[in-house]
Write a structure and sequence with these properties.
With 213 residues, this protein is an alpha+beta fold. It contains 10 helices and 8 strands. Strand 4 and strand 5 form a beta hairpin. The two termini are 23 Å apart.
């Protein structure tokens, strides 16, 4: 079960009355609680560091060669990270649908130029925290430091599992895993992006989709 599925189940048993925050920040507050148990004071300070951004479809948030300066929570919509191969083809590394957290992580952590692009697949609303504020919280709040460690562990497990699947699973098995664990992606993500994420040809994805219907 993916962590996003676990979070949605967590949302099902929570009430907004538990968190005295503005509606745009409620989902982020609940996501924080689903990963770590923050005190109300810590959570209030953390949420105060995030800024709401309305992002247009296909809007680029991080360009290749730029340094990533923000970490994102997707309140509504969908983002993705991708890179270009030596032949100029796009390879999608990460898809961030509604209720996801992420960024161009290597650049964000290291302060180096990003190898990948971060953009929006559709019109989205995100909450963003700057690099300066993020690491200020790491330095000052033990709870945020633990949260940071947990999301690094999640990113490590995700990337290693993804590599294992790309190496050892067939195209049909990768598609079935996506359909089972993240079915919403099949509804909102264009086929050519899904194909690049699954590392299969677009016509193969079309055939697999047709086989399932």
């Amino acid at each position: 079960m993916s962590w996003r599925t676990k979070f949605r189940r967590f949302l099902d048993v929570q009430t907004q009355s538990e968190v005295l925050v503005e509606p745009e920040w409620t989902n982020l507050s609940l996501l924080l609680n689903s990963i770590f148990s923050f005190t109300d004071d810590d959570k209030e300070e953390i949420l105060g560091k995030f800024t709401k951004l309305d992002v247009g479809k296909n809007q680029i948030l991080v360009r290749a060669g730029d340094v990533c300066e923000q970490f994102y929570f997707v309140n509504r919509g969908c983002l993705r990270t991708y890179f270009l191969t030596s032949t100029g083809q796009e390879r999608t590394r990460l898809i961030l649908p509604t209720f996801s957290i992420g960024t161009a992580l290597t650049s964000f952590i290291s302060g180096s130029k990003s190898f990948e692009v971060l953009d929006s697949i559709e019109k989205s609303t995100v909450l963003a925290i700057s690099h300066v504020s993020f690491y200020d919280l790491v330095d000052r709040l033990p709870s945020w430091r633990t949260f940071y460690q947990k999301i690094l562990e999640m990113a490590y497990i995700f990337q290693n599992t993804r590599i294992e699947h790309l190496v050892s699973y067939s195209a049909a098995e990768r598609f079935e895993l996506l359909r089972r664990e993240n079915p919403e992606l099949l509804q909102v993500v264009p086929g050519w992006i899904l194909a690049s994420y699954l590392d299969i040809a677009p016509e193969t994805l079309s055939r697999l989709r047709g086989f399932r219907t």
